[in-house]
Amino acid sequence: METADMQKHLEQMGEQSLRAARSLAALSAEAKVKVLNAMADAVIEAVPQVLAANALDMAQAVKNNLSSAMQDRLKLDESRIAAMAQGLRDVAAQSDPAGKVIAEFTRPNGLKIAKVAVPLGVIGIIYEARPNVTVDAAGICLKAGNAVILRGGKEAFNSNMALAAALDKGGQAAGLPAGAVQIVPWTDREAVQIMLKMDQYLSVIIPRGGESLIRTVVAGATMPVIKHYKGVCHAYLDKSCQLDEALKIIINGKCQRPGVCNALETILIDQAAADRIVPALYAELTDHGVTVFGDENFRKFAPQAEVLPEENLYNEYLDLRVSAKLVDGVEAAIEHINHYGSHHSETILASDPAAVEAFLNGIDSAVVYANASTRFTDGGEFGMGAEIGISTDKLHARGPMGVDELVTYKYIVRGNGQIR
Questions:
Q1: What is the pLDDT of residues 115-161, one digit of tens each?
Q2: pLDDT tens string 260-290
């Protein structure tokens, strides 16, 4: 399609989304629940069509030699589709954030001021090989009263179109305003560049995918962007850690699903307990197929480890590889993480309360754990149902983003003739 025609079509989508957003803002909480549950039913009814579409995408992924991590994100089965539908039902069951009174007070002159949550408006979502985002994003945006324009990657094009068709069919039958959920029907990269300039329609853009995609969006967007560039997540094993418990948490964080942003990428070990921790840690990781890159001090206790170049400490491996380094206690661990990390998710494994509190208070990341896996950084695990993504920003939202993160607020002021 010619660029001019594409731009005209996208602007028409933007205008339709604006109209839908105004209708959604007036939709009752009960009406939104009905729409979301109907969309969940429609997703389940469309399982055969979605699986057939996903099979086309998976065949192309194999042909194009996509990484195992990308193929894992792309692949759908009945259980994953059922989880998407359940995510919609979970979001439907949550309290409606729009219209909540955040604060209210009366000034000495009698003005009554209320700070009230309101939808953002129209949200643009740009994402790669993650067809679940099509459903998750639509559900969360709608629950908060926002319209959404989705632009998925070419890797998941057929899956995304099938899912979007199901959402539209179920939603409109239950009263969803036309244009509330739209998907860009082409894979041309030019469509992304056009969307990034549509600030007259889009209140915010949320990219989900690799670092290069996110940096492209940030560089070109004329509206606010909520994002995280990558997930360089850390675990610090303090000298006080319970080793058996710590090893289980490490293996879960690294191996349970290595191709996601909340998987562990760097392990720091208190050098005061290296002789106790490192050999057991190295053996456990290698038993699970993990390639360990260790610094010079780590390799004194695990000489079979690969040499760790410093640049690897910035790596988001998204694979069964991990960096390992000895540090001089919790303060050194904090300094390392704040320097090399991506401000995503970090955990301390320790039984010393002072070390735990120092870590929790000293780390500048969106989510900080004590004695738990970083794999819990997820909207579902945080009780949000589906999530719109993880933010490492400090404005407007941080950490897993659910419906409560997709509203802003306005002040409503009631008077009885006051003048200044």
A1: 999 999 999 999 988 899 999 999 999 999 999 999 999 999 999 99
A2: 899 999 999 999 999 999 999 999 999 999 9
Instruction: Provide the token pair at 53.
Output: 């579409």
Task: Answer left, alpha or beta for residue 399, where phi above 0 means left and psi between -120 and 50 means alpha.
Answer: left
Q: Which two tokens stand for residue 414?
A: 């009631």
Closest CA to 127 of 149, 108, 94, 151: 151
What whole-number distance in Å separates Cα of residue 332 and Cα of residue 368?
16
Q: Cα–chain-centroid distance for residue 362?
A: 23
Do 308 and 326 meet the contact criterion of CB atoms below 8 Å apart?
no
CB 300 within 8 A of CB 326: no
Nearest alpha carbon to residue 312 among 258, 232, 255: 232
101-106 and 147-151 strand pairing: unpaired
CB 35 within 8 A of CB 178: no
Amino acid at 191: A
* Residue (of 349, 326, 338, 337) closest to 270 by Cα position: 326
In degrees and rounded to multiples of 5, residue 47 shows phi and psi of: -50, -50
pTM for this prediction:
0.89
Give the Cα separation of 95 and 288 in Å (integer): 42
